Amino acid sequence: MNKTKILLILFLAVSALSSRIDLPGNTTIYIVRHAEKDVSDAKNQDPELSDEGRERAEELANKLKKVKLDAAFSTKYKRTRQTAYLSAKNNNIEVQTYEAQDFRGIVELVKTKFPKKKVLIVGHSNTVLELLEAFGARRPLAVLKDEDYDFFFEVKIDPEGKVALKTKHYGKAHHISSLKQKNLQ
């Protein structure tokens, strides 16, 4: 009986360690596309969030409410800043700006300034998948389309540099792209 208990405990311990779900020492990066933007003025290159987008930003903050974020990043655009704002506010941190196309720069910043921390990055339909790749994850889909707003990507980097990606959805369904089955969790 004692031998069985010991083997069971060892099995559970090995299983927990091998899953690397939320072990201390992992860097966790949450990457999302900005929420729905106001498209009422087609000439406006820097629109704010629409009502639906503001709801999605609240849903993102609710999804992350039990997460202690150490940093939140957005591009210079209102829609990305507004998407990140509530999540940052809930953690008493400011939203920091990064250059949308400077993938190496944001990766280097996160890896050097926020190792073993939790970071939110809000990007655009044409930058989110590139960010995933820059952090060492595989693209879970070929392209993020203009109608794709509800994808939630969680990248974990362990102390040895191994990268794990979980792809989820959050808030009201609003996507047309399909994921490869093994990546959807």
Class inferred from helices and paired strands: alpha/beta
The top level CATH class name: Alpha Beta
What fold name goes in the CATH topology slot?
Rossmann fold
| Main sheet properties | 6 strands, mixed
Strand content: 15-25%
Mean pLDDT: 89
SSE succession: HEHEHEHEHEE
CATH-wise, what's the superfamily? Answer: Phosphoglycerate mutase-like
Q: List segments where confidence is low: pLDDT < 50 over at least 5 consecutive residues.
A: 14-21, 181-185
Number of domains: 1
Shape: globular
How many separate helices?
A: 5
| Count of beta strands | 6
Radius of gyration: 18 Å
Helical amount: 25-40%
CATH hierarchy: architecture: 3-Layer(aba) Sandwich
Distance between the termini: 37 Å
* Spatial sequence of strands, sheet with the most strands: 3-2-4-1-5-6
